[in-house]
Design brief:
It is a single chain. With 289 residues, the protein is α+β, with helices and mostly antiparallel strands. The protein contains six helices and ten strands, in the order αβαββββαααβββββα. It folds into three domains: 36 residues; 157 residues, no CATH class; 86 residues, no CATH class. The protein has a four-stranded antiparallel beta sheet with strand order 2-5-1-6, covered by helices on one side. It has a four-stranded antiparallel beta sheet with strand order 7-8-9-10, with helices on one face. Strands 3-4 form a two-stranded antiparallel sheet.
């Protein structure tokens, strides 16, 4: 028994795959392994929280019937077969409600607009990683691994009814493309690095809370913010260039603002400039209300 047990342990270690025993203490040889196993429990939804990240890779997104199930299947396969820490993030899109437009009708009321396609649906994103910085070398390695991976759950030959966004179009484009590099990319070939929502966490580079989301950042309720203007509504969101540009949108008023310049300035000049310009716009919104 001891001999067989040792043979099994050695085979598992050399093979690079592991079997988790339920309700049994970890074997003593596990502490000697140079890496940790990535958990892949089918009963765990692995939902993204604000504690994950701050940098992750957006691998794929799913919408429609069975989208949640297929996103979860990808998470489990990335964890079990590719040794990548993966999570799901759910977002609801509602285009059924009217929205206020710019201007007023004949009775002096704000114009009411509606979306051309009135629909409401849930979308599920699959995000990978726990990267402390966008310059983390493991991020680049994981990104390349994802771009060239062919998970079984995303194979359109076995699942023609995939809910992955634009899966069929990307597969067709990959097959007819003359670029050898692009032809080698898999169904996650458009994966990219992004940031998780950071809440009130102080941004290590900016030195203040930036309320970052999956890309842009929002005003929030802290005393100071970069680029959006201190007078901005808490829901105002945007993103800036490196000392040269900025754009933001205020969903409460429907006003958006973009600033472009022909040269790059240091933060000691650019940040006060953007705060002044953005606050002038916010003040004008209030004066015109």
């Amino acid at each position: 028994m001891v001999r067989n047990g040792c043979r099994i342990a050695l085979g598992l270690a050399l093979g690079g795959w592991f079997v988790a025993a339920s309700a049994v203490a970890a074997p003593p040889w596990e502490a000697l392994l140079p890496f940790k196993r990535v958990e892949a429990n089918p009963n765990n939804p692995y939902r993204l929280t604000r504690d994950h990240g701050p940098w992750l890779i957006l691998a794929a997104s799913f919408s429609g019937d069975n989208a949640e199930r297929q996103a979860h299947e990808l998470v489990l396969e990335l964890r079990s077969k590719f040794d990548l820490v993966a999570y799901t993030h759910q977002q609801t899109y509602d285009f059924t409600q009217p929205v206020e437009g710019i201007g007023y009708d004949e009775e002096g009321n704000r114009k009411q607009m509606r979306y051309r396609t009135a629909e409401r649906y849930d979308s599920y994103a699959v995000l990978v990683g726990e990267f402390p910085s966008v310059e983390d070398p493991n991020l680049e390695k994981s990104l390349d691994k994802l771009k060239h991976a062919f998970p079984q759950c995303l194979d359109l030959r076995s699942r023609p009814q995939s809910t992955q966004r634009f899966a069929g179009l990307r597969n067709l484009y990959r097959r007819v493309n003359d670029d050898p590099e692009k032809r080698q990319k898999g169904p996650m070939g458009n994966a990219f690095a992004t940031r998780n929502f950071t809440g009130e966490r102080v941004d290590g580079y900016m030195g203040l809370a930036m309320h970052r989301g999956l890309g842009p950042h929002s005003r929030g309720a802290t005393e100071a913010i970069r680029g959006l203007g201190a007078l901005a509504h808490p829901r105002t969101f945007g993103h800036g260039g490196v000392g040269s540009s900025y754009c933001w949108a205020d969903p409460e008023s429907g006003v958006s603002f973009a600033f472009l310049s022909n040269c790059r300035q240091g933060n000691e000049f650019h940040e006060p400039r953007m705060d002044l310009l953005s606050n002038l716009v916010h003040t004008a919104i209030r004066d015109g209300a």
